[in-house]
Amino acid sequence: MHKYQVGAMSDDVAKFLLRATLAILILFHGVSKIMGGIGPITGMVAKVGMPPALGYLVFIGEVLAPLLVLVGAWTRPAALIIAINMVVAVLLAHTTQFFSVAKTGGWALELQAMYFIAAICVMLQGGGRFGVGGKWN
Length: 137
Fold this sequence. Notes:
mainly alpha, 5 helices, globular
């Protein structure tokens, strides 16, 4: 039984570290949009023929959802929102980079892919017990 308890603790610590890292790094993007405005986002949305007001949804994907993931409340749906946000970001701003290699030798979209996969992992495994949602979040 002791072995299971130690394993469960390390699983929850790992879930917390993944959750916190994803949330904090995505929050930087959201705070940047709060401070600098979202004109470029609404412009990209309008350019593809959608109402520019939809650009304001970026605040849900890059501020609200990461805050929920960080504190461990509604972790799974919030992580799904982050994943969707990353898909939209790639479709709006990065489609030309999809098959490109960066100057440093990595895939041009490796950061976006890492955010997307981390969000999917958090969505699939939940937040663990170190959050306001408790053990089942």
